[in-house]
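Hi all, long-time lurker, first post. I run a small reading group and we've been trying to get comfortable going from sequence to structure in the token notation. Rather than ask abstract questions, I figured I'd post a concrete chain and ask someone more experienced to write out its structure so we can walk through it together at our next meeting. Sequence below, copied exactly:
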Amino acid sequence: MHWFFSHKLQKIELEAFHDDATNIEKYLEENTINLALIHFMMAYVEPEIIISKASKILTSGGLCSIATSTLGSFKNLQILANIGNLINKFYGFSKISTDDNVKIPKNEKKLESLLEKYGFAIIAQEICEEKVKFTDLYHVHNWGVNSGWLTQILAPITKVQLDKANFFLKYFFPLEDTFKSAIILAQKQ
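-- Answer (accepted) --
Happy to help. Here is the structure in token form:
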């Protein structure tokens, strides 16, 4: 018999809230939970804000699990975006990306310092690196939007903008790059 069926099923009480993560204090009181998962949301929410809020709602000894990419990712794509922005400026097009859209931490050291600032001790940490190869700008756009890793930057780009950018940037492909993510488990002191 499968282990799932050999155990008595238990009912658990679950409350779900659909709101911006920065509004968590509207739903949870301070020092009331023992696990906070901050997975792949730092692209959309300032890391310091979400870590400070996690610190408030976690009990002493509570765990905070973080999984996020860092600005150490895609160094070659960052260079390509800067070249594209220069071309766009020359021709009067809008920017490919803006720093305002990018909230992910600079690197894992920045995450460590934020966690320590808000009363966490790091229990475990792993840095993951994956090599990626893009055949053209359309491949970058498709992968970035559909994987979710670059959605906040690439989703607003129209097909016309993509075609214009590809006309100038196609000579840089194929392009190899590295994706970096940090996975950290920290405990509130």
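A couple of things your group might point at:
The longest strand covers residues 120-134.
The domain at 29-188 is CATH 3.40.50.150 (Rossmann fold).
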